[in-house]
Write a structure and sequence with these properties.
This protein is an alpha+beta fold. It has a single domain, classed as Gcn5-related N-acetyltransferase (GNAT) (Aminopeptidase), CATH 3.40.630.30. Helices cover 29% and strands 31% of the residues. The strands form 2 sheets. The chain has a 5-stranded antiparallel beta sheet with strand order 1-2-3-4-5, sandwiched between helices. Strands 6-8-7 form a 3-stranded antiparallel beta sheet. It is globular and about 40 Å long.
Amino acid sequence: MHDINTERLLLRPLRLADAPGMWELDSDPAVHRYLGGIGGPRPASLADSEATIRFIQAQYAAHGIGRWAVALRATGEFMGWAGLKLVAGPINGQRDFHDLGYRFMPRYWGQGYGYEAARAWLKTGFETLSLPRICAYADTENIGSRRILAKIGLREGNTFTEGGTACVWYEAKNPASNS
C-alpha cells in the first residue's frame, strides 16, 4: 500500500528512524491519561520504542496493515500514529476485527489532525482494503476521541470494560459491502 496524503498530513509506514518520536509520544503522561489498561505499557527506554516499531512492522508483514506514522506534510515532522490493525480479541466479545486507532503528541491536539487521519483511514479501510467493517473503542471519559469517532461516521455501541478501563465501542459497516 502506498503512503496516504491528506490536506495537511502524510500517513506512512513506521520506520526505526521514528523511534525518538515514538519515545516522546509514549513517554508523555498526558498521552496516557485516557489509555489506562488499553494503551499498553509506557516505554522505559528508546530501545522499547524501537521494539514497538519492529512489532508493528511484523504486523505489516503478517496482516498487510498496522498503525502508521503521521507526519506533518509541510515539514515531515513526526506527530504520532494512526491506522488500522487486525485485533484477534476477544475485546467486547469481538474477535478478528479491524481496529481504527490514533495517538498524537499533545502539541497537535485540538487542531483537527486526529479527525483528518481517522477519516483517511476509514476511507482507506473501506475503499482500498475493502474491509467489511471497521471498529474502534475509547475510554468513556475521552470526549475528544469519542467525538472524532462519531464525526467520521462510526456508530456508538455498548459500554464495556477492557483492562480495567470503561470503554465505549464504535463501528461502521462498509457501505459497498454486502455483508
